[in-house]
Amino acid sequence: MSEEWLGTEAAAGESGDEDGDEGQEDGERRHRQLLEAVSALSGRKRRRLAERTEASVQVSEFNVSTKGAGEKLVLAELLQPIRPKSALSRVKNELTRVKQKAAVELPLSKEEAKRVVREAAYVTTSKDVGKWQQIVLQNRRAEQLVFPLKQDVAAVVPLEQAASAWKARTPLEQEIFGLLHKTKQPITDPLLTPEEAASLQAMSLEEARQRRAELQKARVVQSYYEAKARREKKIKSKKYHRVLKKSKRRKALKEFELLQKSDPEAALTRLEELEQLRMQERMSLKHQSKGKWARSRAIIAKYDLEARKAMQEQLAKNKELMQKVRVELPEEKPHGMPEEDLTSVTVPTIPMDASRANPWLLGKPSSPAKELEAQEGQGDVSEPGAAESKEEMEEEEEEEMSEEEALLQDFTQKRHMRRQQAGIPAGQDADVTGAVSEPPGAIPIPLICAEAEVSGGMELPAGAQEEVLLSQQLGRAQTMEDVEALASEEHVEELEQPAAGGREVGVQQPVAAGAKARAWQQRAAGAGTGAEQPVAAAAEAREGQPAAAGGEKGAQRQQEEGRAGARPARKPAAQKQLISLQAVLEGRAQEVQCPSLPVLLEEEEGGIDQRGVITEAFAGDDVVADFRREKRKAEQDAKPQPVNLVLPGWGEWGGSGLKPSAKKIKRFLLKPPPAPPRKDQHLPHVIMSEKRNIYAAAHQVSELPFPFERHQQFEQSIRTPVGATWNTQRAFQKLTAPRVITRSGHIIPPISAEDVPAAARPALELAPEPRVQPGQRRGRAGL
Amino acid sequence: MRVKVLSRNPDDYVRETKLDLQRVPRNYDPALHPFEVPREYIRALNATKLERVFAKPFLGSLDGHRDGVNCMAKHPKSLSTVLSGACDGEVKVWNLTKRQCIRTIQAHEGFVRGICARFCGTSFFTVGDDKTVKQWKMESPEYGEEEPIHTILGKTVYTGIDHHWKEAVFATCGQQVDIWDEQRTSPMCSLTWGFDSISSVKFNPIETYLLGSCASDRNIVLYDMRKSTPLKKVILNMRTNTLCWNPMEAFIFTAANEDYNLYTFDMRFLESPVMVHMDHVSAVLDVDYSPTGKEFVSASFDKSIRIFPVDKGRSREVYHTKRMQHVITVKWTSDNKYILCGSDEMNIRLWKANASEKLGVLAPREKAAMNYNQKLKEKFQYHPKIRRIAQHRHLPKSIYCQIKEQRIMREARRRKELNRRKHSKPGSVPLVSEKKKHIVAVVK
Q: What is the mean pLDDT of residues A197-209?
């Protein structure tokens, strides 16, 4: 209905347009009157319609009438709600929105659309690929790459698994496992047995503290003892060790005595044990002269008295250990210890002949033993305490026993050996009667010399000996013999004196044997004609003398019987009365001892030293002078030369035989400034040339290579040697490690995310969404 | 009682064999070992000389093809197997250890354009001039004729094929790049960008959804298989024959170009190549990366193959023989030890990747000596005498002359440009770097 009304109104508006403004107003008014009339006609219904119009001047096409602006306010209208209806407001909103909307753009061309897609795809894809950047850089910079990249990582298996997986198979393993299980030893991690764990739990705090204190104390004590033991072990003093050993021995002995008193059977068993030990020793042949050490000693023994002594000790030890223990008389003496037995029992029992026949028993017929024996024989020494004291004495004496004695022992041994080898009876070679019969004053000087030689312990240097001996020519061979004979005679005389008591031991002396000895001596003299004469003669004399001294006792004795009475005994050796003659002779032979002549000889041989050899070899070329000359030449060459610009004939007469004037020369001879001082002027052995060596230059780098920025860098890289000559093996391996290692026969697959080390993997995973943590991401360039 | 025992490592004093020298404790006092640099220099010189003396890279040739070898493929699981396709449609499977052909298939009519093995090594694909894609079993049948497992008949000629590295998907190229599911006879999607024949397509071995292709309108196009859309195109001065992705660096690939050069690109920055590799004197026909990703080998129409370090502009090695003609295809074996090249004159040649390398098992001392020599050569590589010896190669006269000729040409061009720059307004003749010079445009 309103539309209809509107239509009429529009029609009226159209008609009004034609008339103009006034006409329009007129028309309106008239129209209103007409409407009122019509509405009055239609009655109530029409009025209602008019009431429903809104108060607005404008008219909208969208069904909203604004008619009735000038109308009266009807009270009934005020009863309606102030806000407009919701449905209408929605419409209104829509209306405003629709009004604001712009026109839709034309769709993109197909090409452009594709390009957009491509661009977007490219950006995302290159971002995706960019996640490898870090890994790629890392691999490019890597010192070493091992291909294939996927290496099998040895997984660490927990102990429990490993233990459970392992089965005991061999009987030993099973046994061990059985034991472990029996004692409930823990195989798994907290390595405590149940008992230990229980005890740990059971312990209170106090207890624990106490325990700990105890433990600490124990540890301290232990460390103290350890330190002490270490200290003692380090002590090198022989004396200390000897004392120590002795005290030990004493202790053992005391124990043994006590044992004997308290429990004889046990003592017997102990003795049996000792016997067992002895047998073992005997079987094992230890402590003999066969071992490596013993042999080395034997070689050195010739020159080194210490070594000789050690050797003898060893032999004594051997003997001692091999000595049979006398067990059959347990109640006789408590000192059944073999060590004492050695001295007290064995030595006297050995008969002289036996000792000569048996090399084993020759080991130590040394004077101390004899002395001891003598003492024993002399005194009534049978109680253990006395034995001990004796032992101590013995040792002290041994210490005192000088090198001379040791040497002497050696000689006696040798002599014995020789005799046995030669089959010469000991007494046979013992006469130098002929020599003795010679008038002693015949050749005074040599005699004196010889005497000096003999009595002075051979302190003369070899040269002196030589001189003395060389003074006697071949023609005087007789005198030589005489000298020696005299010397030996004198010696024997001296020897005889202390042993005067034991003279009845003297044996019959065949004269023929004396002749033999002489022949031997002659041979010695005759052999000494050549260059080695003095040496040989001396040596032979030396060896001959003791032998003679040993042998000629009988003859000497007989001869001097007459004199013996006249001569007052210088040293009445009361103690040595009981000593056997031989022992005495051996003991006194010390004066025959000689210096180590071979050593002197060696020195002579070694006299041609290395330096001499070299100088001899390079006698022709004088390197030092050559070098000096060379250096002088180099200095001359390096000096700047004056430039001669003198032109003869200019400004004066020229011609043959005419010299330019001095003035001209002075003017035109340009002297260069003196060169700076040479760098090698204070280095006499060096020539320093500052010229560029073109031969070397051909090998040198002329310009800085690419990756280096400063020449120092490059030089440094060259300076460091990489070879094994200059580096340790480990460093060498590190320095020469190859950049890329491949394994032959292994396919190298392309890199994949699994190959990337775990440290770098996060970058690989995070990269696709790089803006998750912008702060973090920004730090990494390139991603 | 505590017992202290001296313990020594037997390695310190025990010899390896009884013929070996006794170990001697050394004194490293530098005063006792003077002249370290000159001595090492001499050692380096000797090592370099010996390297050249022992440089005998040629191992053997596999002959049996009756036409030029057009394409080759490596077996992905077996080092000793290699496949080759010839211009007469014949495909051969070779055993490298025996250097024998173990199988021959008449696969196609006309050329075998492309060949690739499936990633699992059970089958391989060939494409030929007869517009077919054929899938073959790797094992030969017990009896009877060789029959392909599948044959796909296409509408156009396929010029190349490559298989996805992880999935049962392969890509062919021809008029467009097609991506195929192995189970279907129609492509999953076809990717085109302009109309021209595409000569080669390669899957990225690391990010396996990426593809690269090169077309005869001188461009290289990258594709994303997931979005089935091309990504970007770079146009070079001349046609790219083939490209190869770096197996260790996901975004790096190298393109073998007709203009004698190879270009290594970073796919994220295609505006200029990372490196221009120049040494060939004729078109480069094929390129293959070493599995370590540090080097690649290129085959050229100039009858030689060259080995380039990835980060160097010049080759480190050139291989040629008198009888080797235009090399069409080249492969670097997966153990990084050998190089295979197939050429026009029907042969496949086997080369050592490292010319002077000793093959076989090396004793530890040999290895140590080798490493030491290598290090010395590296250390003294800038010294002129050593450099001269290390870089000296004998070349066939044709190549030698061409190199000289091209050097002259390049020099003339350079001079001309210099002159032009000198005589024109400053800034009007800009300096273009060698890298930028060969790039025409990058199309988004």
A: 77
The model's pLDDT over B124-167, given as tens digits with 9 standing for 90+, comes to 999 999 999 999 999 888 887 788 999 999 999 999 999 999 99
Residue A474, token pair as written in the block: 């071949």
What percent of chain A is modeled with pLDDT above 90? 14
Q: Helices A477-496 and A511-527 sit at what angle, rounded to 10 degrees?
A: 130
pLDDT of amino acid A91: 84
Token digits of residue A221: 């004590």
pLDDT score for A436: 40
Which residues in chain A are contacts of B229 at CB distance < 8 A? 114, 117-118, 121
pLDDT at A350 over 80: no
User: Is B379 within 8 Å of A717 when comparing Cβ atoms?
Assistant: yes
Interface A-B, measured as beta-carbon pairs within 8 A, has a size of 151
To the question of pTM greater than 0.80 for the whole model, the response is no
Q: Phi/psi at B392 (nearest 5 deg)? A: -70, 130
Q: How far apart are CA A231 and CA A220, in angstroms?
A: 16
- Residue pair B335/B317 in contact by the 8 Å Cβ criterion: no
Tens of pLDDT, residues A717-738 = 999 999 999 998 899 999 999 9
Looking at the complex, does the CB of residue B334 fall below 8 Å from at least one CB of chain A?
yes
Whole-angstrom Cα distance, residue A221 to residue A231?
15
Residues in chain A with CB shorter than 8 Å from the CB of B79 are: 745, 747
Contact B40 A721 (CB under 8 A): yes
Contacts of B224 in chain A (CB under 8 A): 121, 125
For A770, the token pair is 């790089």
- Judged against a pLDDT cut of 70, whether residue A155 lies above it is answered with no
Interchain contact A757–B (C-beta under 8 A): no
CA dihedral sign, ordered A582, A587, A593, A599: positive
d(CA A620, CA A329): 86
Whether the CB of A144 is below 8 Å from some CB of chain B: the reply is no
Cα(A18)–Cα(A31) distance, integer angstroms: 16
